Amino acid sequence: MQKAVSIMYTVFSFQSPTDGYCLVYLIDESQKAYCLLPYRQQTTGNFPVKANRRYVLFSPKDADRSIASLVDEYILNSQESKEYNQLYIIFSPNPLTKTIDRSTTELMPRETTVENFRKWLARCRRNDLDMAVEVKNIVIKGQP
Fold it and tell me: Domain residues of the chain, as ranges?
């Protein structure tokens, strides 16, 4: 018997009191780390942010016109009754670059292993004392 799929649109906003750089990763139950921000078509390896400006991420209609064509819109779904994931929102006023990852398909974000992600994050935090990392636990619920 196949379980129904629950769908959650991934959109959230971000604002900083200082100029800097933002990265967003999703860690799933299969121990993969997906780079959600910078967007797939961005080649800089980071997402620059301006102080006191509100950014709505993962929503082309709410994005600044200058980057709207680059914005990736994600739908999270699960075929299980519940799936537990983590979002890592990483900010630094100092330049930082995402970890090395790889593209799998046009529809999926770039990915790496959780082990590689954690090693990269530990190294970045050791070298950048101004870096802030916020981890948000999310639950994707399947339909009964």
Answer: 6-141
